[in-house]
Amino acid sequence: MTKILLIEDEERVARVIKRGLEEQQFSVVVGYDGQMGRKLLLEQDYDLVILDLVLPKMNGLDLCKDIRSTHPTLPILMLTALGTTDNKIEGFDAGADDYLVKPFDFRELLARIRVLLKRKRYESALSPTLISIADLTINYHTKTVTRSGKEIRLTPTEFKLLSYMAQNAGRLLSRAEIAEQVWNTTFDTGTNFIDVYMNYLRKKLDKDFHPKLIHTKVGMGYILRPEATTQ
């Protein structure tokens, strides 16, 4: 049975989520604050974590970073009332795989959980050890990235975005596809979080190196390839 760790300080919300997931044949363990959630994670193995952002004793961002450092492949779904673009970027930077804003439809929560679990199984089976493009190397065992032998430090979300682009090198990727495949969400034309992350990657990967690897096709999307920009 798939085991989920739910870290949520609102007992009513936790009770509703737990009951709903158990009806779908998931096993659910609840932690009511950040420290309790961290303790539970150390005591047992889980297939997925659902994590509130605002928690007593240890906030969700710090806990998410802690989980990601010790469990690099464990799916983390952040479930919170804080829904601005900045909140989402902070959550993704901390290592969250998906971000759902309260109030939410339980059917959407269930669908996102299933997508994350399916992706984890798929990536575990097919993830390569190394990908190299020009002088860029991505090591999936150590979760490190280098250009010309120099290590480039990326956040978990930046690493995930770069990985998807590298696995699809040479192919134009629309913002909608990137949003769906990297963030498990539908692209909202009213937000620019994908462009924000692309700028982060460009500053780290392309600013001090040649050839440039990340290129923009205006009005269409992004492409990773070692050649002149198409912007």
Provide a brief overview of the structure:
The chain has 231 residues and is α/β, with parallel strands linked by helices. Helices cover 43% and strands 20% of the residues. Strands 2-1-3-4-5 form a five-stranded parallel β-sheet, with helices on both faces.
What do you see in this structure?
By secondary structure, the protein is α/β, with parallel strands linked by helices. The protein is 43% helix and 20% strand. It has eight helices and eleven strands. The strands form three sheets. The protein has a five-stranded parallel beta sheet, sandwiched between helices. Helix 2 (34-43) packs parallel to helix 3 (60-70) and helix 6 (156-167) packs across helix 8 (193-205). The longest helix has 21 residues, at 106-126. The protein is elongated and about 55 Å long.
Characteristic key phrases:
231 residues, alpha/beta, four-stranded antiparallel beta sheet, 8 helices, 43% helix
* Strand coverage percent: 15-25%
| Quaternary structure type | single chain
Model regions low in confidence, pLDDT < 50 over at least 5 residues: none
The whole-angstrom Rg is 18 Å
Number of strands: 11
Shape: elongated
Summed over residues and divided by their number, the pLDDT gives a mean of 87
Give the spatial strand order of the biggest sheet: 2-1-3-4-5
- Cα separation of the termini: 49 Å
- Structural class by sheet pairing and helices: alpha/beta
Helix percentage:
40-55%
H-E order: EHEHEHEHEHEEEEHHHEE
| Major β-sheet profile | 5 strands, parallel
